[in-house]
Hints:
By secondary structure, this protein is mostly helical. It has one domain (18-167). The protein has helices at 5-26, 32-167. The chain is rod-shaped. The chain crosses the membrane at residues 146-167.
Amino acid sequence: MALAESDLEFIRNDIREHLAEWLAEQSLGKPPAVYEIELRERMVRVEEELKHQRELMREGFAQMDKRFEAMREDMEKRFEQVDKRFEQIDKRFEQIDKRFEQIDQRFEQVDQRFERIDKRFEQVDRRFDRNDERFDMLIRRQDRQFYWVLGFIATSLGLTLAALRFMV
């Protein structure tokens, strides 16, 4: 049971013509003029309420802007504090670097001292080596002298014994 296009058009026109009357009847039997006035009053109230809502929204946005500004200022202060802290840390690192440089210099000085001590030990070692050579030479010399003295004594003893044999 499909309706023809003309039937649908008729229904639309009828609804348009009688809609105001039907709405007026639903509002407790008020005539269309009173209903229209009420509608206009409602529209005015709605517009005023919308205006009030816009003002409230503007105030809210203004408060949010103030809040954001305060938060931004607070964040800037915090960032400045963080920057100051980083600067302090940088200064501390510079001090530590200076200390390390001083320690490096001390180590270099200690290394130089050790090198001087090593040179002294080398000198002492050379002196000991020379003294060892001298002692070795003295021992060889004394050994030679001992052999000569022993030879002389043995020869003298042999000659003395031979002379005593001839004499007796």
